[in-house]
Design a protein that fits this description.
mainly alpha, 12 helices, 82% helix, rod-shaped, transmembrane, transmembrane helix, coiled coil, membrane
Length: 356
Amino acid sequence: MKVIFDTNQSKTVLSKFKHKVDVLVPDDDFGKQRNSLIRLVVSSMENKPEQWDNLCQINIEWIGDQFISRLSDEEQKLSKERLDDICSMCFRFLFELYLSMKNDLAMEFESARRFVFNNVGLFESHAKEQIEFAIRDMPISIFKSIANSDSIESIKDFNSISAKAEELKKEWEKDIVDKETRVNKLKESLSEYENGFNFVGLFQGFDDLAKEKSDERDNILFWLKVLSALVVLPVLAELIIIYKNIDNIAAIKDGLIVSIFPTLSLAAIAIYYFRVLLFNYKSVKSQLLQIDLRKTLCRFIQHYSEYSSEIKKQDSESLAKFENIIFSGIVTEDGNLPSTFDGVEQIGKLIKSAKS
């Protein structure tokens, strides 16, 4: 779109020319109405340049630069011929505005248009030709210009464009279906990866727990060995002393009698805590078995859930025994953990039997 009115230079030219027209004193009523029309159109072009640029493109192409040049010419006097010529140009722009607008012209513009229609014969010859061209031929020229414009050509090619659009639509639909299929496949893959990572994380958690329990088992085993030594060493020490002093046993008899009770007490206490640690050792081993079972389950549970759901649709009891075996806990039958009072009671019985 060519812009001619909405520029600083054009606005300045329009404003100056409007003031020049204001100071004119016409000789007759025709001159007054003609000057009023010129001032009305020029003032509107100055105040609403976007409207005139948008709706008067044809006359802008034809006489736009010439019109601004006529208004800016300071050397020529504003004679009747020149004013008539400028008025005819204003009328051409006004008439195109009238033809291009959806709504009717404002009352003052409509009055100006009717003034020109009713007084064509009073204009100078060149201006009269311009006005007659605008009234008679310009609408046809405007229609011809519009009919041959790119927009109308696009409308003429509507069928071919519609066919192309239909082809594009089919291609897009095909692409959408293909992409949707790919997205669904990716979704399934991501779902499998997500489940896989979930079970990997669960397996890792059980593995970390198994390491902790293994360390706990090793510590308990170490203290079991220590307590085993504590159970044997006091008795072994007594036997060594007796063996070395077998020839003089009467001399150490009193010492042996005095030391036997602490020795046996220490052995009994060591045996008691040995039993406690042994129970804990078996418990930790049982827990390790349970953890290993769950680690094993993590390796096949994903596919098993899919397989079992399909099988159970046909026979709900077909996998019942299998699940009872696989998912049941591993039970170890350990003895009851001896309480502290049990150990004290055993030591008391030992002392009583020795006294008797």
